[in-house]
Design brief:
The complex is a heteropentamer, with 1 copy of chain A, 1 copy of chain B, 2 copies of chain C and 1 copy of chain D.
Chain A lengths: L5 H5 L9 H4 L1 H31 L2 E2 L6 H4 L1 E2 L3 H8 L1 H17 L2 H12 L6 H13 L2 H11 L6 H8 L14 H27 L2 H9 L4 H12 L1 H17 L2 H6 L11 H9 L7 H34 L1
Antiparallel strand pairs in A: 1-2
Helix pairs in contact in A: 3-17, 6-11, 6-14, 6-16, 7-11, 8-11, 9-11, 11-14, 14-17, 16-17
Chain B lengths: L7 E7 L4 H17 L3 E7 L2 H13 L5 E5 L5 H5 L7 H6 L13 E2 L2 E2 L2 E5 L2 E6 H7 L7 H13 L3 E4 L6 H24 L8 H15 L12 H9 L3 E7 L2 H7 L7 E4 L10 E3 L2 E6 L6 H12 L1 H7 L20 H12 L4 E3 L2 H4 L2 H16 L4 H15 L2
Parallel strand pairs in B: 1-2, 1-3, 8-9, 11-13
Antiparallel strand pairs in B: 3-12, 4-5, 6-12, 7-9, 7-10
Helix pairs in contact in B: 7-8, 7-15, 15-16
Chain C lengths: L3 E10 L2 E11 L4 E5 L6 H9 L6 E6 L2 E2 L10 E4 L11 H11 L4 H14 L15 H14 L4 E5 L7 H18 L2 E5 L3 H7 L2 E6 L2 E6 L1 H6 L4 H6 L6 E8 L2 E4 L4 E3 L12 E6 L4 E16 L4 E6 L5 E6 L10 E6 L5 E4 L5 E2 L1
Parallel strand pairs in C: 3-8, 3-9, 6-7, 7-8
Antiparallel strand pairs in C: 1-2, 1-4, 4-5, 9-10, 11-12, 11-14, 12-13, 14-19, 15-16, 15-18, 16-17, 19-20
The chains are: A mainly alpha, B alpha/beta, C alpha+beta, D mainly alpha.
Bound molecules: adenosine-5'-triphosphate (2 copies) and magnesium ion (MG) (2 copies).
């Protein structure tokens, strides 16, 4: 090696002085790209979650400033929830939603299996079957409330045609929730169907052939070979269905507005009713309901994040 | 006069979204705009049902100058929150001649918070032709009512159409049954939380109601319909009467019923108490955050003036009753009857309506209970317990 | 006769025919390898034997039964796939036992057979692992184990080693050879790897474009190919081909500036265009000549010397010694004329 | 393929399948078909109780004409467009950036931020309702399209980030490394290398978000009122109170409101489904 | 001295150290190949030289500049990736010119350089195609072209041919050799393919577990490995190893029932456990002996004969002739004792 000054002249490309940004480019760039997203998301999503917790500690009618108009009541809103029958009804209805909404998964699988063929025009059939998912829940709600109309609704016309009594699906407190869930299952099943159709596409054909050589047929093939491979699709269908069930609001609002006499309320609707609806002036109470809903959802979010985290970890190794 | 030099913009949000009121409101705004060359009137008409929940947002940020709302307790949250402007001085100054009689409905905490612009009677609208066919008379007592109803039910019809999906129609029934059974004062005690829902008098009201329910007086599945959706039952003759406000009349006419086919009678007497009536008043208010207060006040004066009142409540506009004592009631069978009923026959007092007299939370829980009662009368005990619990919390 | 017999087997996908009337006999216990360029129909033929593709026409016999229209599971065959096609959600043991379980065999019997197979394949300690936790070679062994367990008449392999790296491939190749010796079942094996074909096969079937080009033992195909295609396909590095013309003295080859004195039984007339083929192993580089050295690759034990002829043709010579020819130097090649093969330039058929 | 391809089954099975398909479709879409039939009837059919018989006259054009010319429907539709399109652009732009940052760079807190976006995306709306409404009101954005747009952008950024990050993750990282070796500045890598490769993801997300936002109802009623700013989903309720019990018009209105996302789906089907599954499954 | 120098280079990922103090000098213009088993750190080392991985400690010099903490783009290196890493949305020409364009070179200059590179790589007619429309070999050429265009001091290749099929690999290997001859830049090349390493390298670096085992020319490593690992790694088929004990007469090898009379300068004491290594090419099968033939693979030109010793050890013998040893027959092996290598059984170091 000769002296140290020579190379600087010989290879100018490496010795250029660089600015601070240039030197820290790799470390700084991601943050620059993240800032707008994080900012927006924090302001509108993350911070409001905590604000909701905060509001739930107040008795406040939503008019004026919470610090002035609101009254700090601590956990009292939550205490009141415990004895609130409507809350209890909502909770039970949410449970019904959770459980019955899951029917969308087997139903979607069934339709997907039915449609997983390559006959002429099947693409059109598939997209038409998917239709309900694209339509707004508001329209689905309207469509189904007309479908359910007592006496003149199509469903009742059909029932009567087969000699059954007409049923007031949305007017009977014992039936209404199920009727709304059925309406909700319509688009949700379509969603699950799409997930399964793509899942079925991704099933390794050689494994099916191996299974055929192994003598697995029909439902055995489905159970032992296909379903396990559809696990990712099932997982996603599960996640989106749970979330859909807990978020159910539009349908209830459109179809029964919580009625008859509050029997179709779920937490998300009850919360809205308490906080923002015509007679609802209890922001604190509503927020407390939202917090409970959030905590329930947190179980599922946690589960989802955990499995994502597991996948991430595996992907790295 | 001094108003002609109004300038700037006057922002009005109105909930008169049904076709006829909408046209009336639009005309009103246009006229006012024309009267004041330097003033621009911006009118936004919002859905009437939606407005009930949206008003608070509208008042919070960038509030308009003038808005629609309802009288009585329904104003309470906004008055408490300081969102309505106190216009007591207008009443005191005599800026609002002819409104003395209705001032009460606008009064909370000893001050006035807005002006009424229309009100309407409630009562029983019925199919005159079917009554004639069955040989029935307008009843005056509850016994007659029940007897009539029996005839109607026997003829294969329901006596009353009602659409209780949005609950408040059931509130109308309760108002009347309770006012007739126990009198106006007791009804108000209940509304203000002084009387208990466990009171035997309340049970008596419900017992009367139950008589009707048990005989099949109401149409089936009413909990599924909105009030408009129940109208076809009357139109088609499947139900003969409808306890409803006068606003239903244009709808009935539009559906093809002539004035020969529909008529109106006052809710019949049950107990020997002075007859109270529901006559809900719709109102205009100035938002406390209004930018153009001068124009807003002028507008309030304008709508409540005798001529304008006559005009906008006319049969081809709102088709309701004017609030100004100096204006004239339109030459309309129902308005005339209603006006007469309210001015002559409402000796008990005039109530606003269930959801306006009761505080919001009580009203909401209450009407839900009423609807449930109409479907499952056997649940009464449970319902009353619930309402009582709510009462204890709401009025604490 | 047991084994597998194909009679005029044809496969069409819609209008396109991909197998053109194949006749083939595979004896019981024979190890038969299908080779051929990509797309020639090796997999299709194998899958037709397995019953995974329908046979458009013709007859397939396995162990003397006509199975042309049988269900795959009824044919007494087991197949090992290129991608292994292991069920990812089952353990190794479950994977191997799955076929028996589906066919209602009692658990004890399944366990015994899985044990036996895992012993043969040295998979004992992995029986409870999922395929994901295995290396490529282990997975391949499991796939073979799954086949063994079912005790089939015929094993079918579709490029079973092509997803393994070079070292492992050699190892597994040896294992498959052992396996065949040990259980003695008929095996049909698809590969495009020459070495696999040469080392494993009792019988090689060379396919091209849905036709059989030649059938025979590896050395037979190596020593006595029927045509240029087979000659070029079998042997590595590939046979060198140079064009030449028949003369009285033999084949005149311009590229080498020499006339090769071949002896042919069925000698074509003088002036016929022919192709002369010489294997790199049969050539030697000699000093002085009209070929220029382009590159020499030294692999330790052996060297490949790439030569450019003035005619633009290219030759590869395999040299045992590490003799270093410098790039660009002019050399010639010498070879034994009896080791040359002559092919018709047009039909590409061997002239013997 | 599972189940066994029908063309490999006996002829009878094929025929059964071919006939079953349209029947199943018909039953599946029955409620929708009913509504479509409603929308072509005259009012008199309903007043006379003729809900399901043959229409007494075919009034499709009258009914849809009414929707378009005698109601606020066109305004609501226009609002929906003005809300949806900027949201799609905004959310996709933001998430391209966040996805790039999270998908390409390794830094402390990467996974944490990513999970924050995912978790936020699954949160029930209700917990945001009160604070977001207050925020919007106090920013003077209540009952403005901008208020809705800003919120939607923020909220959708959660989902879009999940989607974009996973997509970018799946890009070969050698592409980025190759560019780095060539001395390409980081933001230029984003612009010239990554962004062009994200085109399919951007298309998929755009269609998906379009439908999500178009169909949003909850936030529309929480953050807006009246035909100035409300999108069509919320508008349909006031449309329905304008034409209450007039099923022919309500049906026509609903169909009109549902049409854009349906069209979108049909035109961009491939992307739409890619969006649903890639975003979720990957 | 130009070229690339590594001084005590260390790489840790968190707690795990994957490169353990590597010292290496690569001369200017040299073709240096890194080989070693999977996971030994070849790619990591290469990426550290490229600047794509940070260097935990130690110094990297390129062309006499300390670039240890430089940006990749400042190091004067160009890299060719295993997956080519071509930008799919750019044409071949744009791909090659992208780096220059981003660094603000004038368009004319870029065009000229791209032209030149495409001439060298015979890519002229593809300049306007997208990578998708190219074959694997062409893509690889584009990737190389992208490197050439930047006129780097050092070319880095990470298994550039491993995604190509066997035939193409041979072809591209030859092309890379040509390229190196033509442009004469320093090249560092990672591969796990023995043949590539042997044929391309001026200098092979054998890595194991993040350590350098030996550095040298291909034939040097083949002929004179420093330890058992290198001896076994270089050469195909791999060297045979049998255990033995030092005695006066040489190494006593039980597996072969013979004592091999090796001559060692640095002879260990009698009784020392050693490993004897003999390459398959250096052995011959002879009749009679205690080894049994397990399998013979005949590849036409050459055969591999697998022998089992009674001790359980396994030998491979490469035979030129197609002599058929039947399975199970007992044979012996003969070899030249001077071709044997002796390794310490414990340290695995060569004993010379
Ligand atoms: N489902 C199909 N429809 C139409 N043509 C097909 C189908 N499957 C295969 N082919 C065609 O049949 C021919 C033979 O294919 P096959 O897979 O048997 O080739 P192969 O010899 O196995 O090739 P490889 O070595 O690449 O695996 C090919 O030309 C292929 O294009
Ligand atoms: N990001 C990382 N984090 C932790 N360990 C890593 C990381 N990248 C590589 N390693 C480890 O470093 C070691 C060397 O990896 P490297 O990729 O250099 O091996 P290689 O010799 O190139 O192998 P191959 O031939 O399979 O490409 C491996 O043990 C690997 O597990
Ligand atoms: Mg194949
Ligand atoms: Mg590597």
């Amino acid at each position: 090696m000769t002296d140290v000054t020579a190379p600087a002249v010989a290879t100018p490309r490496s010795q250029r002085p660089k600015g601070w940004y240039k030197r820290n480019e790799i470390a700084v760039t991601p943050w620059l790209f993240l800032i707008p997203g994080i900012l927006f998301f924090s302001v509108y999503v993350i911070i409001p979650i905590f604000q909701s917790f905060y509001v739930s500690l107040f008795e406040w009618n939503g008019l004026g400033d919470i610090a002035e108009q609101g009254e700090f009541v601590g956990m009292q809103n939550y205490a009141e929830l415990v004895g609130d029958r409507n809350f209890e009804i909502s909770l039970w209805n949410n449970l019904k939603w959770l459980l019955l909404y899951l029917l969308a998964i087997p139903a979607g699988l069934f339709i997907a299996l039915f449609l997983n063929q390559t006959v002429v025009g099947i693409r059109l059939y598939k997209s038409l079957f998917f239709f309900p998912f694209v339509i707004s829940q508001v329209v689905v709600g309207l469509v189904f409330s007309w479908f359910y109309l007592p006496n003149v609704g199509l469903l009742n016309v059909i029932l009567q045609f087969f000699g059954f009594e007409s049923v007031n699906f949305l007017g009977d407190p014992d039936v209404a929730t199920y009727a709304i869930i059925a309406a909700g299952l319509w688009p949700q099943t379509a969603y699950a169907m799409i997930l399964y159709l793509t899942g079925l596409n991704a099933v390794d054909p050689e494994q099916i052939e191996a299974a055929r050589l192994d003598g697995a047929k029909g439902h055995k093939m489905l159970w032992y070979v296909i379903l396990p491979q559809l696990r990712p699709a099932t997982f996603i269908a599960f996640v989106v269905t749970i979330i859909g069930a807990l978020r159910s609001f539009d349908l209830i609002s459109i179809m029964t507005n919580g009625g008859p006499f509050g029997s179709t309320r779920v937490l998300s609707f009850y919360m809205f009713e308490k906080a923002l609806s015509e007679y609802g002036f209890r922001m604190g109470y509503g927020s407390a309901i939202a917090v409970v809903l959030f905590l329930i959802m947190l179980v599922f979010i946690g589960y989802f994040l955990y499995s994502m985290w597991r996948d991430e970890r595996e992907a790295r190794h | 006069d001094g108003h002609s030099n109004l300038e700037g913009t006057l922002r009005i949000i109105s909930d008169m979204s049904n076709p006829a009121p909408r046209a009336a409101m639009e005309g009103l705004a246009a006229d006012f705009d024309e009267m004041h060359p330097n003033l621009t009137v911006e009118l936004e008409i919002v859905d009437r049902e939606a407005w009930k929940s949206q008003i608070r947002n509208a008042l919070s940020a960038n509030p308009p100058d003038v808005i629609n709302w309802y009288a009585a307790n329904r104003m309470r949250p906004y008055v408490d929150a300081g969102l309505f402007m106190d216009i007591s001085d207008m009443y005191a100054n005599g800026d609002l001649p002819g409104l003395e009689a209705v001032q009460g409905a606008m009064t909370l905490d000893g001050a006035q918070w807005g002006v009424p612009y229309t009100y309407y009677q409630w009562g029983i609208y019925y199919r005159e032709d079917i009554f004639n066919e069955l040989g029935l008379e307008e009843p005056e007592t509850f016994e007659q009512e029940i007897a009539n109803c029996q005839v109607i039910v026997d003829s294969g019809r329901a006596c009353y159409a009602i659409g209780s999906k949005f609950l408040w129609t059931a509130g109308g029934w309760f108002d009347y049954l309770n006012m007739r059974t126990n009198g106006f004062d007791f009804h108000m005690e209940l509304a203000t939380g002084q009387a208990s829902w466990m009171d035997d008098r309340v049970r008596e009201t419900f017992a009367n109601w139950r008589t009707l329910i048990d005989m099949g007086a109401f149409i089936e599945d009413h909990q599924t319909y909105s009030w408009q959706e129940a109208l076809p039952f009357v139109v088609n003759g499947e139900a003969t009467a409808y306890l409803i406000g006068n606003f239903a009349v244009p709808h009935l006419r539009e559906a093809g019923l002539t004035d020969d086919q529909i008529d109106f009678y006052q809710f019949p007497m049950i107990a020997d108490v002075p007859m109270g009536e529901d006559a809900p008043t719709d109102t205009f208010h100035i938002a406390s955050g209004a930018q153009n207060v001068d124009a807003a006040r002028a507008f309030l004066q304008y709508v409540t003036s005798a001529e304008v009142q006559t005009e906008i409540n006319g049969p081809d506009a709102l088709g309701q009753l004017p609030v100004n004592a100096n204006s004239s009631v339109a030459d309309d069978e129902f308005l005339q009857q209603g006006f007469e009923m309210l001015s002559q026959n409402a000796s008990g007092g005039i109530a606003q309506f269930f959801d306006r007299d009761f505080p919001a939370e009580m009203a909401s829980a209450g009407m839900e209970g009423l609807q449930e009662f109409m479907v499952f009368p056997d649940n009464l005990d449970d319902i009353l317990e619930r309402l009582e619990a709510t009462r204890e919390r709401v009025y604490e | 006769m047991p084994g597998v017999t194909l009679k005029d087997v044809i496969k069409k996908y819609g209008e396109t025919q991909v197998i053109h009337g194949v006749d083939l006999e595979i004896n019981e216990g024979e190890f038969c390898v299908f080779v051929g360029p990509s797309g020639c129909g090796k997999s299709t033929l194998l899958r037709m034997i397995a019953g995974l593709e329908e046979t458009t026409s013709g007859i397939i016999n396995i162990a003397d039964n006509d199975v042309t229209h049988e269900d795959p599971s009824q044919r007494g065959v087991a197949m090992v796939f290129q991608t292994y096609a292991l069920y990812p959600h089952m353990t190794v043991g479950e994977n191997m036992g799955f076929g028996l379980k589906m066919n209602g065999h009692p658990k004890a019997e399944i366990d015994a057979k899985v044990k036996e197979a895992s012993r043969i394949l040295k998979l004992d300690e992995y029986l409870n692992r999922k395929p994901k936790a295995l290396s490529g070679g282990q997975r391949q062994r499991v796939a073979i184990g799954r086949a063994i367990v079912r005790d089939p008449d015929v094993f079918l392999f579709d490029e079973p080693l092509s997803n393994l790296d070079a070292e492992l491939r050699v190892e597994m190749r040896v294992e498959i050879a052992h396996l065949h010796k040990e259980i003695g079942a008929t095996m049909i094996y698809v590969t495009h790897d020459q070495v696999e074909a040469m080392t494993l096969a009792d019988k090689i079937v060379v396919l091209r474009k849905g036709h059989i080009e030649q059938v025979g033992s590896p050395l037979h195909l190596y020593d006595d190919p029927d045509n240029k295609f087979v000659a070029g396909f079998i042997g590595s590095p590939a046979m060198n081909f140079v064009t030449g013309t028949m003369t009285d003295a033999g084949v005149e080859v311009p590229a080498l500036s020499q006339t090769v004195p071949v002896t042919l039984t069925d000698r074509p007339s003088n002036g016929t265009q022919v192709t002369l083929g010489v294997r790199p192993q049969d050539m030697m580089v000699v000093d002085g000549g009209n070929l220029s050295v382009d590159l020499a690759e030294h692999l330790g034990g052996v060297s490949y010397i790439y030569l450019d002829a003035p005619s633009g043709e290219r030759l590869v010579v395999e040299a045992r010694e590490n003799n270093r020819q410098s790039r660009g130097s002019n050399v010639g090649v010498s070879f034994d004329a009896t080791k040359c093969m002559v092919f018709d330039a047009k039909t590409e058929q061997r002239i013997r | 393929m599972f189940p066994t391809p029908i063309e490999k089954r006996p002829r009878s099975a094929q025929i059964t399948y071919q006939t079953l398909l349209p029947i199943a479709l018909l039953m599946w879409l029955l409620p929708l078909i009913a509504v479509m039939m409603f929308s072509m009837r005259p009012l008199t059919d309903f007043t006379q109780g003729n809900y399901w018989g043959l229409p007494s006259s075919f009034e499709m054009f009258t009914n849809y004409g009414k929707v378009f010319f005698e109601s606020d429907m066109p305004r609501y539709m226009w609002n929906s467009i003005l809300i949806t399109v900027p949201t799609v652009i905004g959310a996709v732009a933001l998430s391209c950036m966040t996805g790039f940052a999270l998908g390409i760079y390794r830094f402390n807190g990467n996974l944490l931020i990513f999970f924050m976006f995912i978790a936020g995306n699954f949160v029930p709306f209700q917990i945001l309702m009160v604070p977001v409404r207050d925020l919007t009101v106090s920013a003077g954005l209540y009952d403005t399209k901008l208020g809705l747009v800003l919120f939607h952008i923020a909220f959708q950024t959660g989902f879009c980030t999940l989607f974009m990050r996973n997509f970018i993750r799946a890009l070969p990282k050698e592409l980025i490394e190759a560019a780095r070796v060539e001395g390409v500045a980081e933001w230029r890598i984003f612009w010239f290398v990554v962004l062009p490769l994200m085109r399919p993801a951007i298309a998929a997300l755009s269609v998906l978000i379009f439908t999500f936002i178009w169909n949003d109802y909850f936030w529309a009623i929480v953050l807006t009122q009246g035909p100035d700013a409300q999108p069509v989903t919320a508008g349909i309720t006031s449309f329905n109170s304008q034409f209450v019990a007039q099923y022919h018009l309500m049906s026509a209105g609903s169909i009109v409101a549902a049409l854009p996302p349906v069209l979108m789906f049909f035109l961009m089907q491939k992307h739409f489904i890619a969006g649903l599954t890639l975003g979720a499954v990957k």
